[in-house]
Amino acid sequence: MTTLTIWDWEVEKYPLQVGVGVIIGGWTFVKLVNYFLQRSKLKSARVRKRAECKQAKQVLEDQIKQRNISKEVVEEITNLSLSELQSKLKDGTLDVLDVLHAYQAKALECDEKTNCIIEPFKEAEEWAASVKENVSKDSPLFGVPVSLKENYGVEGYDSVYGMSVLIGKPSHEDSVIGQVLRSQGAIPYVRTNVPQTMISWDCSNPVFGATKNPHDTTRTPGGSSGGECALLAGQGSILGFGSDIGGSLRIPSNMCGTYGFKPTVGRLSAKGTHGCTKGQQIVRAAYGPLARDVDGLVTAMKALLVPLMFKLDPTVNPLPFRTEVFEDNRKLKIGWYDNDGWFTPPPCMQRGVAIAKAKLEAMGHTLVPWKPPNATLGAELYVRAMFSDKCETINEMLRYDTLDVCFMIQYTMANIYWPLRRFLVFILHYLMPSLSTGLKAIAGCDSAYDFWNLAVAAEDYRKMVIEDWQSHDLDAVISPGFGCPAIPLKTPALATSAVSYTTIFNVLNFPAGSLPVTKVNAADTANMKDYPTIDLAHKTVKKGMVGAEGLPVNVQCITLPWHEEQCLRVMKDLETALKA
Ligand SMILES: CCCCCC/C=C\CCCCCCCC(=O)NCCO
């Protein structure tokens, strides 16, 4: 009888070791094969999806060529403001189909420059014809083309948000916002790009690539509604819709110089939208409009706050748009701050607030210094809530996927092995305190008990800030639009702490809007020499400010929950004063 040997082992002598070895080896082999098979399946899905979307754009491009619509007409139509467009559609000076065709052409032109569109809606022509036939010309959005962020469910279309595992899983119904928009005469015509997971303020993913800023294509358009804002800034959309759980309506508005509005959660419906944090109920996503002026935001809010939305989604607050509050001209007491004490914004952002303050004062409002107390706690609560599941939901979805650079830092920080995390938290506490706080918070919750305590802490924080706000008798607050203007592509993940300017109003669930007030100038960049470089985020912003002249700078206007109309009124006052 021959002896079976593995290397120089006689197998019969060590049956247990060999058995265990075979099992472990076999299991590892099966796991490895499965891993590579799954990865290659996802890679093929990405290639297929990209090709499908490219093909859909090509089909539209060919149709546009056949239509022979002149460049001048496209420019003439897409340069109209929303109110001008509405009146020309209403009085019949412009035809619904011509407007749609002009926006389709302009959108493809923007896409060429910034990669902001995922795909056009093939049904847009059909929807336009149905609007002409069935919707009254008096409807607020009669014939207005609208763009939708990719996470708005549309029957028959996938919402992928950069996660390959979601390819080929189309929505079975339209989002409620989409349904109400169409009932009001709007025509969805394109869907726009987002960052992988949408928990990032950059805008790239392994499925559709990176969207670029139209003001400087080497820079980020912001995220996560980055595709929307790049399209709006390039005049390829007149009205868009996005979502915001940490600033995604306001951050890209700040980077692209557009207008965004985040209502209180529950003022507009979330039904039929998608995202990977749906199970996390401490900080919830708000859905809202993006536009090229304040009137655009107001028109959208008015068009959506109607009985049909309250019927399709009875979970929203059935509060129609209060025009009397928006049009009220009582002088207001407005708080202002230009540094939240957690992240120092560069001088251009502080100058933006100073301009807004001076303009509002000149209109007769009273401006007083005020900032949300304990912004560090606000930032900590935000990160803990967002990663309270220890990143498991996202880990599961990304298991076999390619990780995009925009989410790499968050992913790595969330998945650090706990002894190393404890060690780093301890060391960084003395070297880079904000990074230490972030690293501790991103570990999430250890138990349901821990999660309940987090919910209580968030509630207490809201109570404390509201009491402080009320003790100052404030009607509204203005702040920097974000922690910095647009910085180079792929660098936002290194400067995540800059999100404290927007995330705090998600933790607080206050309505907040963003509007452009100025542009970075040479003095702003020269003043960067004294900018602190205390940690990676500040260093990244300092480096990113080189060559930033000409980029948009926004401010935020904020009010207490359910005071959307008052927030929009302050935005409108500021816009009027800036344009005067
Ligand atoms: C030192 C600080 C560590 C921070 C760790 C990073 C944690 C979170 C980054 C969040 C970025 C949020 C961007 C906006 C997300 C958003 O609003 N998405 C919309 C989804 O519908």
From TrEMBL:
It catalyses: N-(5Z,8Z,11Z,14Z)-eicosatetraenoyl-glycine + H2O = (5Z,8Z,11Z,14Z)-eicosatetraenoate + glycine; (9Z)-octadecenoate + glycine = N-(9Z-octadecenoyl)glycine + H2O; N-(9Z-octadecenoyl) ethanolamine + H2O = ethanolamine + (9Z)-octadecenoate; N-docosanoyl-ethanolamine + H2O = docosanoate + ethanolamine. One of its GO terms (biological process) is fatty acid catabolic process. The keyword Lyase does not apply. InterPro entries: Amidase_dom (IPR023631), AS_sf (IPR036928), Endocannabinoid_amidase (IPR052096). GO terms for molecular function: amidase activity; fatty acid amide hydrolase activity. The keyword tRNA-binding does not apply. Pfam families: Amidase. Its EC number is 3.5.1.99. Belongs to the amidase family. Keywords: Hydrolase, Lipid degradation, Lipid metabolism, Phosphoprotein. Residues 98-568 form the Amidase domain. This is fatty acid amide hydrolase.
